[in-house]
Structures are given as C-alpha cells and as structure tokens.
Design goal:
Blueprint (H helix, E strand, L loop, with lengths): L17 E4 L10 H9 L5 E5 L7 E4 L10 E5 L2 E13 L6 E5 L4 E10 L2 E3 L19 E2 L3 E3 L2 E5 L2 E3 L2 E3 L159 E2 L20 E7 L7 E2 L3 E4 L2 E5 L2 E3 L2 E3 L7 E4 L7 E2 L3 E4 L2 E5 L2 E3 L2 E2 L6 E3 L2 E5 L2 E3 L2 E2 L7 E4 L4 E5 L2 E3 L2 E2 L6 E4 L2 E10 L2 E2 L7 E4 L3 E10 L2 E2 L7 E3 L3 E5 L2 E3 L2 E2 L5 E11 L2 E3 L2 E2 L10 E11 L2 E3 L2 E2 L7 E3 L10 E2 L2 E5 L9 E2 L5 E5 L7 E4 L48 E4 L6 E4 L13 E3 L9 E6 L8 E6 L7 E4 L7 E6 L10 E6 L8 E6 L6 E7 L5 E8 L10 E6 L8 E6 L6 E6 H5 L10 E2 L5 H4 L4 E6 L8 E6 L6 E5 L1 H5 L3 H6 L3 E4 ...
Parallel strand pairs: 1-2, 2-5, 3-5, 4-6, 5-7, 6-10, 7-11, 7-12, 8-13, 9-16, 10-17, 11-18, 12-19, 13-20, 16-22, 17-23, 18-24, 19-25, 20-26, 23-27, 24-28, 25-29, 26-30, 27-31, 28-32, 29-33, 30-34, 31-35, 32-36, 33-36, 34-37, 35-38, 36-39, 37-40, 38-41, 39-42, 39-43, 40-44, 41-45, 42-45, ...
Antiparallel strand pairs: 14-15, 15-21, 55-56, 57-58, 57-80, 58-59, 60-61, 61-62, 62-63, 64-65, 65-66, 66-67, 68-69, 69-70, 70-71, 72-73, 73-74, 74-75, 76-77, 77-78, 78-79
C-alpha cells in the first residue's frame, strides 16, 4: 500500500531577542523607543543594550503615550531587560511626562542607567468663571520616573530629580453676580477639569481624562469629559471614553477607562470619572438642595465641583474633593477627599462657592500600584512629591484642602517593594514620608535612608500607614532625616514594623514628637539590636522613641544622646511596651519639670523594663532623672539606674533593681557588629548581674549579633551588650605538636608570654597549624589544631574555657593515612551560633576542602567535601579562609592553591557549600597581579576579615613559600562585585613586612580581633628560615596601602629560625 506523504506545519515560536540602541533620538530606527516597541511586540524576555554613539549618552524623551494613569514616554507590557552603560533617560520639554509605565503583564529589568527629570502631574480642577459653582478637585500625580503595576527590578542605577505633583483644586466661583452656575470638572491624572465660562451657564464642566481636558458646559448642557488621548479634548455631547455631558435636567455620563465624567446639565448630576478620570461638575440645583452633587472622581481623579446649591463630588484615590456651591439657600458640603487628597471646600448658609481640594503627589521617583519591585545597589536621590494646592473660595465658603505629597522617593500601594544595598537620600515630600511612603509591604536590607525631608508632615525618612502595612528594616542606616511633625526617621501609623541590626542616628522632628521613631496606631513592633542615637524632638516628646499604641518589643538596643522636651530617650503614652537588655544613657529632657525624665517617661500604657541599664540621663535642671512613670512590677527587675523620679514604682533592692551606682560604661563606639554600642568596662556592676530567665527565648546573641553570645558566665549581663572573653591568637611552628595561646588585653595588646599551650597530639615530632573559634557554643574561642607534615594527619579541638579539655579527640579528616600535613580555618557557616571548621591538605594532597562540625557528644559531622581548586590532579594542597565577602550575613569559603601552584583563588558561597553544590561567588582569579601571577608558583596564604569596617570581609593574602613576605589585602566589596582588577589596583594594603623584600620564606596571615572593635586585625607569622616572630596590626591602624606605622611584635620561640616558619590563627 502506498504511503501518502504530506507537509506538516512547523510550530510558530518566537525566541528572545537583543535589540541595540545606537541613536539617542526619541523616535526612529535604532532608538530606545523603537527597541521597546519591538520588544513589546513579542511575549519573550527580550534584552535592550546600548552601542556606538548611544553609549553613555542622554536619551531625551518628549513623546507621550497613553494609559489612564497619565502620560508616559515608554510603556512596558512584556518581559524586557534594559542593560545600560551609564546612559540617562530624561524628560525633554513636554510639560508632564512620566518616563516609564510597567503594565500588569510587564516585567522590566533596569541596570546601570540614570532616570531623571520625569514629571507626573495630576490635572487641575476646573472652575466656574461666573457667579455660582464649586471648584473641581485636583487629580493625582504618581511616579515621576516609573509607575509600576507589574514586576520591576532596578540594579546599579540612579533615579534622581524626578517629581510627582498633584493637580491644584479649582477655584470657587466669585459669587459677584446673580446668575446660577455649574461646578468645575475634577482634574484627571493627566487632563484638567473643564472650566465653565462666565456666560450664565447652568451646565457643569466635564472632568479631565488621561491627557484630554474636560470642556465647560454651555447652558443648559454639561461639558463632555476628557478622553484618553492627548488630542481628545471633550466637546459638548461627549468624547470617546469621556463621559457625555448631560442635557437639561440630565446627569452627565460616566467616563470610560481613562475618561473624565461628563458635566451634568442644568439640574443634572456630574458623571463619575473612569480610572484616572475626574468627575464632572454638576449643574445648578433643581429646587432640592444637594440633589445633584458633582461626580466622583475615578482612581486618581478629582471630584467634580457642585453647581449652585449642590455639594462637591468625592475624589478618587489621591484625588481632591470637589468644592460645594450655595446660592443662598443652605450650607452645602464639599466632596470628601480621596486618600492623600485634599477635601473640597464647604459653604456656610450664606452664598459662597468652595474651592476644590488639591490632588496628591505620590512617589517622586516610583509609584508601585500592586506590583513587585526589587531595587539593588542603586541610588534614589533628590526626587520630590508635592501635593496640589487647594482652590480658593468665593464668597462665604471654605477653600479646598491641599493634597498630600507623600513618598518623596518611593510610594508603595498594594504591592511589595524590596530595597537592598542601596541609598535613598535627599528626597522631599511636601507632606509625609520624605524618602518612602508605604501602605503595603516594604523591606530594606543594608540600605541607607538619609537626609530626606517631610516638609509639613510625618516620617522624614519613612512613613507607613494602613492597618495591614508591613515594614522590615535589616542592617540599615536611618540618618539625618527631618520631619516637621513626628517621626524624624520613621513614623508608623498603622501596621507592623520589625527593625534589626540598624542605626537610627541624627534624625529630627522639628515641631512635635519622635525625633527618631514614632509608633501611632501600630500593631506589633519589634526592635532588636538597634542603636538610636543623636535624634531630637525639638519641641515635642520622645527624642529617641515616641510610642502611643501597639505592642512594642525592644531588645538588645542602645538608646543614647537623644534630646526632647519630654522623655529624652523614650516617651511612652500608650500601648504595651517591653524593654529588655537595653542600654539607655546620656539622653536629655529639656521640658517642663512635670514631664522631666531624661531616660524613659511612661505616662500611659503598660511598660515592662528588664535587664536594662538606664543611667546618666539628664533633665533641664541637670538632675539625672532616669525614669518616670509606673512599670509592671513583677516583670520589671534587675535594672540598673542612677536616679529615679519620685513618680515611679522602681526602687533600689526591689526585684533586683539597683539605683544609685555608676554602671561603668565605655563610650559609644564600634565594639563589633553593625551598630555602635557602649561596652561595660572592667569591674562594671552590670556583668553577670541580670536575670537570665528574663531573656526572651530565641535570643542567642547580644546587640552585636552573630559571634557575640547573649549569655556568658553565671548570668546575663545587664544592658545591650555581653562582655565576651578576649579572642585568642594561636601561634605555632616548632616540631613539638603544640600551639601557644596568646590572649590580648582590652586595648588589643598581647603579653610577652602565652596564657596557655595546647598539645592534644602530644610531642609528636611535627609542627601544628591552628585556628581559634567557638565550636561548642559556650562563648569561648576553642583551639582547633591540625598536624603538619611528617606524621599521619590528625585534627583535634581543645576547649577555650580551660585550654585543657579535649572537645574533639584527634581524628583523621581524610581517612587515608596522609602524612603531608594540613591547614585549618574556622567560622560559623550555617549561622547557628557554633563554628564549623575547614580542613585542607598541605603539599602532596589534592585541593580538597572538608568541612566539619562538632556534635554534642564530641564526635564530628562532615558538612561538605569538595575540590576547592578545579584541578583534581593538582598535588600542592590548598589553604582556606572563611569570611562574609559579599556582606550578605553569611560566611563564604575562600580557597587558595597550595605549593606548586600559582596564587590562584576561588571563593564559594557558604550556603552552596553546605548544600552540597559549591557555587562560586566570583570567577577564580590570581591573588597577586602582573608578573607575580605567573612567577609565584607556591600559592599564597590566605585569611579573611573586615579590615576596613565596611561590612565586607576583605581578602588578606600572604606570599607563599619561596616568595617575599608580602601582605596584600583586597577589598571584599570590590571583589564580591566582580571588580578584582579594581581591588588589586587600589588595595587596602600592599607591603612587605618590615620592608624586607629579600626573604623568600613567605608570610603566614590570620585575621583576628585583638581590640574588640568592628575592624579585623591582622597577624602575620615569619616565613621559613627567618627569625621567629609574629607581628600584629590593628585594623584601625591601616591608613593608606603601606605597612601600618603602629604594630606589636611577639618575639616567639626565642626568635630562632624555624624550618617551616611561624603559623598564626
């Protein structure tokens, strides 16, 4: 049987494409506009790049496209990535033009770009130029640079100089003559409301649309609403998408999406605006007062003004209410404001016309409307959100209220905004939230919010409102922000807040309360490991905190040097407040005697104080009144105070409270961790004096975070920080199987002799290599040792609590009788409060990296086992270090090639190592640049620690055997960003120890913490055949790239030359 062949149609499939911008013009082939259009035409994830003459240039945008939310230059409806090379997108001369709109189906990624000079301006409300008629409300202006309803990712970019401006309310009619009149149309999100001419008309004006303006009525017919295109000004009888004006005694038609409502005819009600459209003004009354109100604005639209003897229409979200009008019969009410809009002006019983309320200006740079935004490594600066002014009134009526300018940089509505490693600075809001306004979900991590201003409102840095709103702030800085009213840094008026590992410093409330933080109508608030310092409520209460409501839990927090006229540190006037293990000192109350309490003033509410030091706070009469108010008696215990007001129930000797002694605290400074703290000095009565049972469950660390246990010794310390045992430096070298333990004093100086010697292997005839870390979680750094060459390799751990107890008995880490020796590194890879240890082989072994943790019974668990250098045949071994190179809160694993290899370095994320799939943080690189990358063939020694104090672990390299004693420290911030060349060109340090360029024994390196500050100290051990010595440089002494002028030498092991050199760890 013959088989009939036929052709089958192939599947229709489009593929992602890359479009190249070569022309900086606003239209035509090769332009950004053309590229976006091509990318939108297909559903795939396309990419746009810049090349040729467009690289680094300025794209001036001047053509407006259409949505109901106001004019946009570019619209994104599909997944698009725009990868810049430093280009700027900017508005040219068009009066109102937002730069980008991202639709609900859009997914936009922006990188390495600047967006500036965008302007989203709401339409103005209309008026009646005749005798009677309320002004229309102004429209919403939202997102000067970007309006997002989809998914938006911004990386390495700057948004600056953009503006969101609300439309102004229309003026009420002058009421000079005797003619009746219709109300002005409400402004839309782009178009202005219609204005009725002075011709005795009774018809109301149409509302503004996307960009089309409403049209005034012509008696007795109402004007048509503005439409959705820039040319669609309404005409009597209506416009596409704009509501049709009503004929005599007929209501104006409702606007479609983007359209304004039609004006009501004589005796007709104004039509409602569609989304983005303003409401139509109403006609004059029909003999029944307030029967024909102005039309309500749609989302973002202002309400229509009322005609004679009618009330104004309500504003939509962000829109101003319409003004009312009274021809002399009875008082009429202005339209209610949309959220953040201004209220329409009402009238008295006498004749008058109210002004329209101003529209809101929300999100000077970005308005997020239910979308998802992620901002990383970017700057949002000098943007402005300004509310529209209220319209003036005619006759005996009220002017319209001004709209609010909220979120000078960013406004978040019904969506999620995540900001990481970014800066939000110098933004201005005419109302609230100088930097950010939030009504939904906001998360800040490692971000600075600084120098923002709320000129007439609350929340100089951030303002949050709404019962379901959530703000989470981690590892960030809120500094130098100003509000006219309350909450210099943050105002929470509804919803919950969680703030962790954050500095709140130098903020100000100029007229009311909460120089740093204010919580009003709040839900649950958690403050943990935060420093609140140098804030001021110039004329109000609560220099650091003002708490009016909510459940507020404050733990491991330092409140110092704040000032107010009532409660220098805290003013508590409501809510349920718990303050545990906190330090509240040196705050000042400048107010009247009845309210004086430099530390904590609790006039209302339920307040519990536990394990807290509240000391040396002052009042205007220079008396150290630390607390005032009544506290929960049963829970308020083991606090330490210098002076209490007579109006308090805290007393010396009751519930372990101590009153009247000096707490012996050090200054506010870096004592480790991300925030500054005040550490108890030697002999402080705070040490081991608290109630351990008062420490909340799940609180392993003090204010400084990981590595600083909350409870050490017989009891918890009072205050925010726990005095930790000094961190030891382990030194080894002689072939005696032992390491010497050197313990620094509080200033970071080491004694001439070690505090102990640990030798878990006995006199085995080989040297050891050692590192210090807490493997059992008792707060003491233990000694982890591995044998050197010449004997079967073994690893053991000796307790740091007594330098005697063996926590892990000697074991073979590789299980094959290897005798080439090894190296060890220590750190808390999984973040559980106990350290893992990493073992690598020395010469003769492969580049094996084995990670272990200690079980409670003293056995070990293998957590990871992989090749750190991607060469299974290499037999020079490897050396490892642990540190948070990318400042993400988790340690990374740094691996350097050993003997026989070049100074090749690999960095793996700790999480991927523990997950069994080691992933590189950056591509492998050679530690030393230039010819050294080729000539040095015995690898390098490596350590990792934050020498600069910027939160990134820097990479500390030492020359390997056969090389000079060169110390080369690279910035972790640059390396983790993939900028290795830049890190090598501008090293943190680059020197030969003691200026010795001739030795060829290399130099061993270690990162330690001798002085307990936030900067890693560097210890170096002399190389093979050189006189035995250890030199220690404190992190604070690294100035420039040369060898620090200040250091300490430890003349170890009699100063004799050692064949294997001196090892430090």
């Amino acid at each position: 049987m013959a088989v009939q062949l036929r052709a089958e149609a192939l599947e229709d499939r489009t593929v992602p494409a890359t479009f190249t911008v070569t022309d900086l013009s606003d239209a035509g082939p090769g332009t950004l506009r053309a590229a976006v259009g091509l990318a939108n035409a297909a559903p795939d994830a396309d990419t746009i790049v810049f090349a040729g003459p467009a690289v680094g240039g300025i794209v001036l945008l001047s053509t407006a496209g259409g949505t109901q939310f106001g004019p946009n230059a570019l619209e994104v409806t599909t997944p698009i990535t725009i990868t810049g090379s430093g280009e700027t997108l900017s508005r040219e001369t068009i009066q109102s033009l937002r730069l980008i709109y991202v639709s609900p189906t859009g997914n936009l990624v922006l990188s390495n770009l600047t967006l500036s000079n965008g302007l989203a301006r709401g339409g103005n409300g209309g008026t009646n130029l005749g005798d009677d008629g309320g002004g229309g409300g102004g429209g919403l202006g939202a997102g000067g640079a970007i309006y997002n309803q989809g998914t938006l990712t911004i990386t390495g970019s700057t948004l600056s100089g953009n503006t969101a401006r609300g439309g102004d309310g229309g003026a009420g009619a002058n009421n000079a003559g005797s003619d009746a009149g219709g109300g002005g149309g409400g402004g839309g999100m782009g178009g202005n409301g219609g204005t009725t001419p002075d011709n005795g008309t009774d018809g109301g004006a149409g509302g503004g649309g996307f960009a089309g303006n409403g049209v005034g009525g012509a008696a007795p017919v109402g004007g048509g609403g503005g439409g959705t295109t820039s040319t669609a000004n309404g005409a009597a009888g209506g416009v596409a998408n704009g509501g049709t004006g009503g004929a005599a005694a007929v209501n104006g038609g409702a606007g479609g999406i983007g359209g304004g409502g039609g004006g009501g005819g004589d005796e007709g009600t104004g039509g409602a605006g569609g989304i983005g459209g303003g409401g139509g003004g109403s006609g004059e009354d029909d003999g029944v007062d307030d029967a024909n109100r102005g039309g309500a604005g749609g989302f973002g639209g202002g309400g229509g003004g009322g005609g004679e003897d009618n009330g104004g229409g309500a504003g939509g979200f962000g829109g101003g209410g319409g003004g009312a009008a009274n021809g002399g019969s009875a008082a009429q009410t202005g339209g209610t404001a949309g959220t953040f809009g201004g209220t329409g002006g009402s009238t008295l019983a006498t004749r008058g016309s109210g002004g329209g309320g101003g529209g809101a200006g929300l999100g000077g740079a970005i308005f997020n409307d239910g979308g998802t935004i992620t901002i990383t490594g970017s700057t949002i600066s000098t943007n402005t959100a300004t509310g529209g002014t209220g319209g003036v009134a005619g006759g005996t009526a009220a002017a319209g209220g001004a709209g609010s300018g909220t979120g000078g940089g960013v406004f978040n509505r019904l969506g999620t905004v995540t900001v990481q490693n970014s800066t939000i600075t110098g933004n201005i809001a005419s109302g609230d939230g100088g930097g950010i306004g939030n009504t939904a979900t906001l998360s800040l991590t490692n971000t600075t919010v600084s120098a923002n201003t709320a000129t007439t409102g609350v929340g100089g840095g951030i303002e949050q409102s709404g019962g379901t709103a959530v703000v989470t702030i981690l590892g960030s800085n809120l500094t130098g922000n100003t509000s006219t009213q309350s909450g210099g840094a943050l105002d929470v008026f509804g919803g919950s807040a969680t703030i962790t590992d954050t500095n709140v410093t130098g903020n100000k409330s100029t007229t009311i309360n909460g120089g740093g933080l204010e919580f009003r109508s709040a839900g649950t608030v958690t403050i943990n490991r935060v420093t609140v310092s140098g804030n001021q409520a110039a004329a109000g209460f609560g220099g650091g905190f003002r708490i009016l409501s909510g459940t507020v839990n404050i733990l491991n927090t330092t409140v110092v040097d704040n000032t107010s006229a009532g409660g220098g540190g805290f003013s508590i006037a409501g809510g349920t407040v718990s303050i545990v293990n906190s330090t509240i000192t040196s705050n000042t109350d400048t107010g009247a005697a009845a309210s004086r309490s430099g530390g904590v003033s609790a006039t209302v509410g339920t307040v519990t104080l536990a394990n807290s030091v509240i000391a040396n706070n002052t009042t205007a009469d220079a008396v150290a009144r630390d607390v005032r108010g009544t506290f929960v008696a049963a829970g308020s215990k083991t606090n330490f105070l210098t002076f209490v007001d007579a109006n308090t129930n805290l007393a010396n000797g009751v519930n372990g409270n101590v009153v009247g002694a000096d707490p012996l605290l050090g200054p506010l400074q870096s004592n480790g961790g991300p925030t500054q703290t005040r550490l108890p000095l030697a002999g402080s009565p705070l040490i081991n004096a608290g109630s351990t049972t008062s420490v909340p469950a799940g609180t392993p660390f003090d204010q400084r975070g990981s590595g600083f246990l909350r409870v050490i010794g017989s009891a918890v310390d009072i205050g925010a920080v726990e005095v930790q045992p000094p961190f030891p430096l382990l030194v080894s070298g002689p072939a005696n199987g032992a390491a010497a333990v050197f313990v620094p004093n509080p200033a970071g100086a080491y004694p001439a002799s070690p505090a102990a010697t640990v030798a878990p292997f006995g006199a085995n005839g080989a040297n050891v290599r050692a590192a210090a870390g807490d493997v059992n979680g008792d707060g003491f750094a233990d000694s982890i040792l591995v044998t050197g060459p010449g004997v079967p390799i073994r690893v053991a751990v000796v307790s740091g609590a007594d330098d005697t107890t063996v926590l892990v008995a000697p074991f073979d880490p590789f299980g094959g009788g290897f005798t080439g020796g090894g190296y060890v590194a220590v750190g808390d890879l999984d973040g559980d409060g106990t350290d893992e240890f990493v073992v690598t082989p020395d010469q003769g072994g492969g580049p094996r990296v084995s990670v272990f943790s200690r079980n409670p019974d003293g056995t070990t668990a293998v957590r990871a086992n992989f090749l750190g250098i991607d060469d299974a045949s290499f037999r020079g071994g490897a050396r490892a270090a642990l540190g948070d190179v990318d400042n993400n809160g988790a340690l990374d694993v740094v691996v350097a090639a050993g003997f026989g290899g070049g100074p090749r370095t690999a960095i793996f994320t700790g999480a991927s190592v523990l997950a069994g799939s080691p992933a590189r943080l950056v591509n492998d690189f050679f530690a030393f640049p230039g010819t050294d990358a080729v000539n040095l063939r015995n690898g390098s020694f490596v350590a990792a620690g934050d020498v600069t104090g910027d939160g990134f672990a820097d990479l500390i390299f030492g020359g390997g055997p056969g090389g000079a004693p060169r110390v080369f420290i690279l910035s972790g911030a640059l390396v983790s960003a993939g900028q290795v060349d830049a890190a090598q060109a501008t090293p943190v340090a680059n020197f030969f120890v003691g200026g010795n360029v001739n030795d060829r024994g290399g130099v061993r390196v270690a990162a330690t913490d001798a002085d307990g500050d936030s900067k890693a100290d560097v210890a170096v051990g002399s190389g093979e055949g050189s006189p035995a010595n250890v030199r220690v440089y404190l992190g604070k002494d690294f100035v420039g790239s040369g060898e620090p002028a200040t250091f300490q030498d430890l003349g170890v092991f009699g100063g004799g030359a050692l064949p294997g050199g001196v090892f430090v760890g």
